[in-house]
Amino acid sequence: MSSSHILSIVTFVYGLAAFLYLFECVFKKPSAGRMATVVAILGLVGNTAGIILRWVESYRMGIGHAPLSNLYESLVFFAWCIVLLHLFVEWKYKNRIIGLIGSFLAVGALAYASLKPSQIQPLIPALKSNWLIAHVFTCFIGYASFAIAFGISLLYLLRRFGGPAILERLPSDRLMDELTHQLVMFGFLFLSAGIITGAVWANSAWGRYWGWDPKETWSLVTWFVYATLLHARFMRGWHGNRIAILSIVGFLAVLFTYFGVNYLPGLHSYGAMGQ
Amino acid sequence: MRKTDASVGIWDTIWGFFASVRLTIILLLSLAATSIIGTFIPQNKQPMEYLQAFGEFGYRLLSALDFFDMYRSWWFRLLIILLVLNIIICSIERLASIGKILFVKKPQFRPGRFQKVKTRWTFDDERSPEKLHDLYAPVLKRKFGYTQTKTTDEGTYLFAEKWRWTRIGVYIVHFSIVVLLLGSLVGSIFGFEGFVNIPENETVDTIFLRQTGQSLKLPFAIRCDDFDVSFYANGAPKEFRSSLTVLENGQMALQKDIVVNDPLRYRGINVFQSSYGKMAPEDRHRHVEPPEEVELKVTEKATGRSLTRKVAIGTQFDLPGGSGQVKIAGFQEALTFGGQNLGPGLLVEISSPQGQAEQVLLPLHFPNFDKMRGGAFLFTILGQKTRDFKPEEEAERYYTGLQVTKDPGVPVVYTGFVSMIVGFIITFFMSHQTVCVILTAKGGQTHVAVTGIADRNKLGMERKTEQLSVRLQSL
Ligand code: HEM
Q1: What's the CATH number for B192-284+393-406?
Q2: What's the whole-model pTM score?
Q3: Which residue in B20, B26, B39, B242 has the most chain A C-beta atoms within 10 A of its own C-beta, making it the best mutation to test that interface?
Q4: Looking at the predicted structure, is the pLDDT value of residue A270 above 90?
């Protein structure tokens, strides 16, 4: 069985976990919740196996490299980070709301990955660096953390502004607010580490640690948004809605950094500018 | 007096402006918003491209606002300078109070503060307050490191605290941002970023700066001994490799093969593999083959008698009238005459019976060239049969494209990186935690209340005090 087969099965395993988490939330069945956690763990094991197998496959093809080099591989790793983080927070806070959000996000990431070309490609010279691994690893842990914070903020605001009654089953406002804050701090640490490892890599490959290219700039924009959130909270005591909105804006910036930058007028699509 | 008052007022206002967190939030959001502009308008392109995209008016407007080089514009730099002032002045503002908190000989704990904490965990115990105190104190000491006891009329307060020093975490983070920006300033003043293309086997000691296009002489020369590019089966490039030699005063100082991600560093200057190309064909040394056959006409000027013959290199024949011999002695790729390159041609020797020899040049591209010589015999080229042109399988010649940079600010910037991460870990995941266990005697029993205060992560502190109360209750 090839790694891409395993990973498409994992998509369904995460889907099952998401369904069970939802079932627990709607029908208040703790047994469903426990099952959901077990299924999510199984999914994570499969996800890990898929990534490792893909790594091995690339070596068998004679172009061995860590599977972190294209959109497909990064989405698979993104799903892995999300589920790992959600299981950790679920265990730490003994609360399954995180699992609901995490498994839905993971299904989304893997479903999107399945639409992308999944062939293993050789590495172009610029990507042959150990800093690449450190860079992608830290960035995606950060992104995963922001993604879950985004999910919580979204549900929080939905409930505040008259979402369906079922949302009353979610944890208290205070806990959701606190979780958002903790996840943003965690994400911020890793985003910063991601920007830093990226800068060190750029310096070792091109002799400059910062060049204001669109991707770099957007990661900095994201950093500014979350830095705003942290100061508003630390120093001005912002809570609740306003923090939730900033966390959503921050995650939109993350998405743009991840996907949107490719559509910007760059060196090659210059002609489309200004029309 | 009034005047001084007014000026103090102004300074206070300015100071207050920079000491506010509202300014921080406004600056951070402005930086986020303006940074985006430069990702939608490609930076540092040719004016023509902008004119096409935005029209004349748009071009002038955006250009006046520096939007085509915005990350170096005065207003973007101003935002960054304001941010630095904001950080520094805020830090100074708080330094005194943070100093008082950090450098205390004997921490002061106010029971009143703990009375106000909303979440407290309580239980009753049969043992006396003194006994419980002696039981709890070592546990708290082990968990927190520092304990203090205070007895009042209301009861015994057992305080414990740890990680007081983590209050400097934020200052480390802010300090690291200042260091980072300082490092980039050092780089922009004392460093440069340039490029140069070196053909294989050639030596270069001058590069071109990226920003201005000006040339810059390096303190050493670089020779490209070899360049290689290899490809994967699917045609994508696999590796670019340049073998470089650094020459200092003509002496070989260093030799290294560089690939992308593995530069050569010498005397603070870094040389990176950045691009490559093939030398244009004009520049390549071209090989010209001698013709297979040339049809020559030789005319004796005095008599007008002529003969026509097909000749090749080495052919010999008699001149018309038998007054001597002609030998096609050789071929040259490039005949020169009066300093001019006449292209390929034949070397012809005429020898008279008396043994006198004369050399004649016959450029193949100029059939009537010999008229100029004014000799007794005139050579004219009527036609020639060239060999099928087969370019020699000559090795292709590449040039390597190198990025050459110097940035003495890098160590400073990296120091900023490291301290920022350290600062984050302290700020986000550690906090100055104080707990207070209140023991009050109540009708033969002791009422125990456990509360805690942390400067950050309040919810985490609540869980911590809960765990602590469970632990104490089990003793
Ligand atoms: C980017 C530029 C930044 C500026 C201009 C800035 C500015 C400020 C200012 C003016 C304050 C209030 C005064 C003070 O306590 O010193 C503050 C507080 C704070 N900043 Fe920043 N900051 C920046 C970056 C960051 C970053 C990246 C973090 C990430 C952790 C951070 C974390 C904090 C924290 C935790 C506080 C609260 C301090 C406290 O509780 O006493 N700052 N910042």
Answers
A1: 2.60.98
A2: 0.79
A3: B39
A4: no
